[in-house]
Amino acid sequence: MQKVIIIGAGLAGLSASVTLAEHGISCALISLQNSERAQSVLAEGGINASLNTMGENDTVQNHYEDTLRGGVYLADPNAVQNLTFHAPEIVRWLEKLGVPFNMTDSDIMLRNFGGQKKKRTAYARSSTGKIIMTALIDEVRRYEAGGLIQRYPHHEFIQLLTENQACYGVRIQDAYTGKMTDFKGSVLLCSGGMNGVFPEMTTGTTQNSGDVTATVFRQGVTLGNPEMIQYHPTTIGISGKRCLVTEAARGEGGRLCIMQNQQKYYFMEEKYPELGNLMPRDVVAREMYFIRRKYGGEVFLDMTELSSVTWQKKLSDLRQEIMHYLALDPKTDLIPVREGIHYFMGGIDTDEYHRTNFRNLYAAGECTCQYHGANRLGGNSMLGALYGGRKSAETIIKTAEFLTEENQEVSVSVPEKASPVLIQKISQILLSGLGIVRNQETLLKQLNALEVLANQRTYSFYEQNRLLLAEAMLRSALERRESRGAHYREDYPDKNDNFRKTTIAECDDKNRVRISFRPIPEKRADI
């Protein structure tokens, strides 16, 4: 019988399940899609670790400082310290599992990524996520064969089973048969980001609907920094979503420009001579927004100066992708790019041990507010998911109240999904209020539009959850009266250290959304 229930089978879920299995603890790994179709497969550029294989005197301390600075000091420094300290160990573990990282003559090759002065990002061409997931899936199958991991694909999370601020399981539906089952045990949420809240504007899979986060929020689980949404500077439009042009393209020498008098104007290099096109993503996205507003026209990514060796050995997948979708060859053509929603720094609020405000409920990966503060550095997402899965599993082993009840089939009505029309309406309200540049007038206008929408008719279970989640995101942005990282308020354009706090969003038992702020923990002694 499973003692731990993991919702989500991407990097965080697989990492947690392997860690539990290594300690002899069984788990149920529940996901709507197979792991081969998880969001993690789409990650392209690489994973950060201060391996210092490129002779640049990189250190764990450098990685720690870059991560905190990139997140504009909104992340818990103790959590970030643990993350960056264990990063080399995580990458070496992946290497032992057989991940074929790009290599120098003798060791793992590292590339430059945004917001970091050192080469620190290990990669496998431009398909790093897919390749790491393949290695982890094989490792999970080994423990699955021994009975320590039981997989439940095509099963969907419905809601938590809770009592007195404690979680004792989850209600799950088999998407094929419609059968409902209450799984009993400690619960780890690894359900990914809220991409499905923003159809057509996100680089991620909309199978990550945001429904898990919305449902647990309505059940009383607190959210942290839900206003912090990362816009990736370089995406291209395809049917139904945005396609990522990996930051590795700029790490290998790609340059952003806009055309002026038929000449290329490399605006990032002029304004930021030290890091140029590799400034943190929030900075690059804002500069693209402002340069278009000033001059009009498109922003282009110029990769025409990259060598044939770079295209062949490091970015071959990216070139094929762009040629397929745009019928342009980045080796010879300028590529028009726009900002697209890429990552959610905010999410389920946890402490550095991945505990939520409910006993026996934990969360890891992109569904959490954890390591990235106000802006995530490129290369830290896969690291955060892998380390977060491991750390949460270790916490569960030490603190969970393991239950002995059997899983039970239940007879309840099947909840209706949110209608595509409502999803689109909520998305437009949020995009209008939570763009790259925000202000009080727009946020209040969109909150009013959301209230009008909420009062139009009676909504289903999932629809009510989504409306409350949207309200939490807008109210959090309204209450943070400063500019920090991905949250830029043109009416409050400066950083204000009175707001160097975590935004906390809560939903009470009368479905009222409350916003407050919690101080950032003090840093303890170095590891």
Summarize the structure.
With 527 residues, the protein is of the alpha+beta class. The protein is globular, with a radius of gyration of 22 Å.
What does this structure look like?
- Helices cover 34% and strands 21% of the residues.
- The protein is an alpha+beta fold.
- It folds into 3 domains: 4-228 and 345-410, FAD/NAD(P)-binding domain (3-Layer(bba) Sandwich); 232-341, Flavocytochrome C3, Chain A, domain 1 (Alpha-Beta Complex); 417-519, Methane Monooxygenase Hydroxylase, Chain G, domain 1, CATH 1.20.58.100.
- It has a 6-stranded antiparallel sheet with strand order 13-12-17-16-14-15.
- Strand 7 (155-163) and strand 8 (166-174) form a beta hairpin.
- It is globular and about 70 Å long.
- The chain starts with a strand and ends in an 8-residue tail after the last strand.
- The mean pLDDT is 94.
Would you spell out the secondary-structure blueprint of this structure?
Elements: E1 4-7, H1 11-22, E2 27-30, E3 47-48, H2 60-70, H3 77-97, E4 110-111, E5 121-122, H4 128-145, E6 149-152, E7 155-163, E8 166-174, E9 180-184, E10 186-189, H5 211-218, E11 223-224, E12 229-238, E13 241-244, H6 248-251, E14 255-260, E15 263-265, H7 267-271, H8 281-295, E16 299-302, H9 308-313, H10 316-326, E17 335-344, E18 347-349, E19 361-363, E20 368-369, H11 380-399, E21 408-410, H12 420-433, H13 440-454, H14 461-479, E22 501-507, E23 513-519
Parallel strand pairs: 1-2, 1-10, 2-6, 10-19, 18-20
Antiparallel strand pairs: 3-5, 4-5, 7-8, 8-9, 9-21, 11-18, 11-22, 12-13, 12-17, 14-15, 14-16, 16-17, 22-23
Helix pairs in contact: 1-4, 1-11, 2-3, 3-11, 5-14, 12-13, 12-14, 13-14
